[in-house]
Amino acid sequence: MFATEPVRIVAVSAGLSNPSSTRLLADRLAAAARDRLDATQDRPVDVRVVELRDLAGDIASHLVSGFPPPALEDALAAVTGADGLIAVTPVFTASYSGLFKSFFDLVENTALTGKPVLVAATGGTPRHSLVLEHAMRPLFAYLRAVTLPTSVYAASEDWGASGDEYTEGLPARIRRAGGELADAVSGGRAVSGASRTPGLDDEVVPFEQQLAALRTA
Predict the structure, then answer these.
(1) Which CATH number, 3.30.230.70, 3.40.50.360, 2.30.30.230, 3.40.50.300, labels domain 2-216?
(2) Where is the signal peptide (predicted)?
(3) What's the mean per-residue pLDDT of the chain?
(4) Spatial separation of the C-alpha atoms in residues 78 and 90, rounded to whole Å
(5) Among 98, 131, 139, 163, which residue's Cβ finds the most Cβ atoms within 10 Å?
């Protein structure tokens, strides 16, 4: 019976537009974690994405009243009950968005204790990539979560770029981070990204085409 319990991965996306690069990154990271889990263990994998833009009014109401509406209560329960968490925010004013922070302000400060968290962010320029280190890691350290070694920042120019001999392209970073999350929740052994046989994920797909796919999904 125990073996049939699913591994629960929850991705929190704070993107404001629809579609958004933030949601796209959350989906890609969740898919990478699912792929690793499917390859390394027999338990089913349950992936859920929490879109904060759909909960903005509920978040504001809870901050004022102290009582979460049902949809927000369900989202908070999903986050705190997950085996592994993916947290993705757009960068606003050199930090995480207000919507992202407001949501995690509603999470009890012990509810994520020991939970593996993959942090990621999107922005228009690579200059904001340090938001992962100076803002997001401290936030989840306060919440007593375990942030994974690899964090992922995706600037506009990273989408559809294959990287170079000194840096990994975005698909490789997504694979590595998703693999770390999968290994953290399952106790599996990490597999070097260099040993992976290149596949379709390595193909360079223009950003506009990736967003268009979200519109038709």
Answers:
(1) 3.40.50.360
(2) none
(3) 86
(4) 21
(5) 131
In sequence order, what E strands does 2-115 have?
A: 7-13, 45-51, 84-92, 95-96
pTM of the model: 0.83
Angle at CA of residue 60, ends 58 and 65, nearest 5°: 90
Assess whether pLDDT exceeds 80 at residue 207.
no
Mean pLDDT of 134-138: 96
For residue 31, the SS3 value is helix
Residue 48: both structure tokens together: 């859920």
In the structure encoding, which two tokens stand for residue 189, read together? 């052994």
Amino acid residing at 66: G
CA atoms within 13 A on the CB side of 122: 26
Counting other chains too, the contacts that 199-204 makes at CB distance below 8 Å and 24 or more residues apart are: 201/171, 201/174, 201/175, 202/162, 202/169, 202/171, 202/172, 204/160, 204/161, 204/162
